[in-house]
Amino acid sequence: MENSTQQVELQIPESSRQISEDDDTNTNQQQQFSRRSNKQYGWWFRIFLYIIFLLVGQSAATLLGRFYYDEGGNSKWMATFVQSAGFPILFPLFFLFKSSKNTAFSSREKPSRSSLFLIYLFFGLMLAGDNLMYSYGLLYLPVSTYSLICASQLAFNCLFSLLLNAQKFTALILNSVVIVTISAALLAVHSESDTSTKLSAGKYAIGFVCTVAASATYALYLSLLEVTFKRVIKSETFDTILKMQFFPSFIASCACVVGLYASGEIRHLTAEMNGFNKGEISYLMTLIWTAVLWQICCIGLLGLIFEVSSLFSNVISTLGLPALPVLAVIFFHDKMDGEKIIALLLAVWGFLSYVYQNYLDDSKAKSSKSEENEATITH
């Protein structure tokens, strides 16, 4: 009788310890889930902020670029220069986000300074050439036509993402690429309404070719950035994003200054400012705010590349393009004829096809994660 009583007394503490361990396990799982939820909310907040930066910066900067040409500006190199010259506004952010540089990634192998210099030089020169082609396109094309042709960069980015970033192609993504390509081709074929008044057919052709080439170069630029982030720089801090924008922009600005002197346009800038239709102050403010807005756009773009992918950032960039023709009609009285309306609808259709594919991928990823969590809790 005494032995059985002792056995019972020994079993009670053992079961209590088991219950306590289960409680600790549940508490740890709840804490891990809470931390995971907080990280996810923080991630979504950053994505939302980067999207706002990208869309607002891109739309406003493009409209100001057209305003510069319409009111008397004519320097292609100056229009190119302001697309990268706003990089000094990023300098205070290095101090603000300095604390995010250290610890967790210090043990990883990082590229040498010479390698980083070559990376910045390559991307800076590539950025300068791409911006110059965009400047020619914006000079010789109405904003509505220019923005719709720029949508072709989604097709180019899908191609480069497939080749360089191992992006998977689905029927919806292929549908998006084909439709956006048809949208740009439609504008190339039906150009009479744009060339009949202000533009000659030759200038329209130059603007079209430069815009398509710039879109292809920009798509390659984004894919190469993603590869550089993941395989060369191997860092996951906002400080990395800032450097990847600051130093290439500095090099691109230096290249544009060389272009200003080599082309002789530097000698005509004073006369251009004096002859600006809205006045000298308006001329300076147009250039300054164009430079600032392009930097805001680039921060959003690089942030999306860093957090998601180059293809996703390009799709978000394409999201703002359908709004530009409408804004161009309001502010610059561009013609919105039948061809442009059809091209606009096709561009929106192509964008929505890609967004729906992203939605399906995200839903599939969430369901697989929930199944894994349930399996972990069960075991």
Q: What's the quaternary structure here?
A: single chain
> Structural class from helices and strands?
mainly alpha
Mean pLDDT: 77
**Beta-strand residue percentage:** under 5%
Largest sheet properties? none
Shape: globular
User: Rg to the nearest angstrom?
Assistant: 27 Å
**Element string (H = helix, E = strand):** HHHHHHHHHHHHHHH
Relative helix content:
over 70%
- Distance between the ends: 39 Å
Number of helices: 15
- Unreliable segments (pLDDT under 50, ≥5 consecutive)? 6-10, 99-107, 192-197
Overall number of strands: 0
Tell me what you see in this structure.
It is found in: Membrane. It holds the Pfam family PUNUT. The chain is mostly helical and 379 residues long. Helix content is 81%, strand content 0%. The chain is built from 15 helices and no strands. The protein has helices spanning 2-70, 76-81, 91-96, 113-140, 143-150, 153-164, 171-189, 192-195, 201-233, 238-263, 269-274, 280-307, 310-320, 323-332, 338-378.
Features:
PUP_plant; globular; mainly alpha; EmrE-like; 379 residues; Probable purine permease
Indicate the topology:
Layout: H1 2-70, H2 76-81, H3 91-96, H4 113-140, H5 143-150, H6 153-164, H7 171-189, H8 192-195, H9 201-233, H10 238-263, H11 269-274, H12 280-307, H13 310-320, H14 323-332, H15 338-378
Helix pairs in contact: 1-12, 1-13, 1-14, 4-9, 4-10, 5-7, 5-14, 6-7, 6-9, 6-13, 7-15, 9-13, 10-12, 12-13
